[in-house]
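Bug report (template v2)

What were you trying to do?
Predict the complex of my protein with iron/sulfur cluster.

What happened?
Run completed; filing so the output is reviewed.

Input:
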Amino acid sequence: MAELRALVIVLGDQLDLDAAAFDDFDAAHDAVWMAEVAEESTHVGSSQPRTVLFLSAMRHFARALREAGRPLHYTALDDAGNHGGLAAQLTADIERLRPQRLVMTAPGDWRVLQAMRGVAEACCLPLDIREDRHFFCSVRDFAAHARGRRSLRLEYFYREQRVRHRVLMDGDQPIGGEWNFDADNREPFGPEGPGRVPPRSRFEPDAITREVIALVRERFADHPGALDDFAWPVTREQAQQALYRFIDERLPRFGRHQDAMWPGEPWLFHAHIAAALNLKLLHPREAVAAAEAAYHAGKAPLASVEGFIRQILGWREYVRGIYWTQMPGYLERNALDAHEDLPAWYWSGQTDMACLRDAITQTLRHGYAHHIQRLMVTGLFALLYGVDPKQVHAWYLSVYVDAVEWVELPNTLGMSQYADGGLMASKPYVATGKYIDRMSPHCRGCRYDPAQRKGERACPFTTLYWDFLMRHEALLAKNPRMALQVKNVARLSDDEKRAVVARAAAVRRGEVGSTSHE
Ligand SMILES: Cc1cc2nc3c(=O)[nH]c(=O)nc-3n(C[C@H](O)[C@H](O)[C@H](O)COP(=O)(O)OP(=O)(O)OC[C@H]3O[C@@H](n4cnc5c(N)ncnc54)[C@H](O)[C@@H]3O)c2cc1C
Ligand code: SF4
């Protein structure tokens, strides 16, 4: 066998034939390495849909590599002698293949980067880590943006990105005269609901996906989530189809109702492309360009287009910058000193709180919930309840098909749980059940009343909101953006405060909210 020059490592979320790792790839001398390992599905108990998506997309990408004539060493999950972990598998394969060097595109996760460096060092091989060109902003450029700033706000970063990449710009001014059309984008649906919602892009499982589904059902039978309705894109072609259908059918209504919720309607006017982007099946530049083109062609209003572009060119890049400039310490942060266990019904949906039941049930069924369901339903409840941020992080990383740590962790720990003490969000995203009542009809079908904070019918969100303000009064009083909310605590009588605390304790004991006690 000819000597192997470079072994190009491709991880499960690096499924891009044009990645930097392939820049000087020569099929006569180099080979690609990929491995399915149980550790990646067990370190946080990955849900069944998430594991199927990763494994199926990897197997489809392996087929694309072979078709492109790139030699591949691929270890499947059920191969005899699978070493079970990325580092162990790579070490064993290096001993067998004896490459001169290792090449890879920068991994998304800090843990994986350390593991790959550890293997290279132990095997005395050079490891060439290349820039991930998938992103608009490099980690180095984000670090330069962050230098000297005490807090990091999206808005300044986002404007810089717009100017730098010339997106929705008219000379040096934003198209439409504003950088941000969020004020137009917060409408609930009227009493008649969302009306006709275009059907979701479905990709029926082919033979590869069906085989993976059977494997995951067998190997990870005790992992959460259902597979009966698995229809996510698993190839680049499918991911592109999903993007262009979104642009044609949903983007025009994306902005206006971006924060709205409706029972039994998981898909609404969102794009459902986060998983395809995060696995690198889809390039963020093509998503941004397609949305901008739709605006210029008069097919979608500016508020929708700007709102969508801000999510990708702004938020997605910004959370990646936060992750890489704050790790590894970020994972350990717990600014609100929260230590409660995550209620068990997060894994089953068995709660009598209508909004949470709907969000969790669809999450377990599809591996999907839209941003406001994640932030203002499941995330808000965990924050008010005082759940240990690491447990909240483990839940989000497990249940969503688009979950990868670099994007999930800052969203969960920073934006949703305020565990970084305000690095990302200028104040905790806290609200009573009335917010959910405004953005959805859930409360009308719920046994609780969002306007009540104490008593038998008190909405647990509302009770826990007041309990949260009382528990963190000293800290929150220092935050000018929370001053008004904190002041309202002083208006409560001592009896009322005691009643709130007692009911909050009952919620935490599982006597309210959980259906397992019934
Ligand atoms: C607690 C919590 C956990 C989250 N975990 C993840 C995660 O693991 N993976 C993930 O990709 N997103 C995560 N998000 C961000 C966001 O909720 C999802 O990207 C979005 O709901 C995915 O659905 P969609 O593709 O239909 O997005 P759309 O609403 O249609 O938005 C379009 C795209 O913008 C990007 N985007 C939107 N909001 C964000 C954001 N806040 N951060 C980064 N990118 C964003 C996504 O790539 C998304 O596909 C999380 C948000 C919260 C509050
Ligand atoms: S009353 Fe409270 S628990 Fe019930 S749906 Fe409304 S916000 Fe959710």
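What did the reviewer find?
The longest helix spans residues 302-326. The mean pLDDT is 95.
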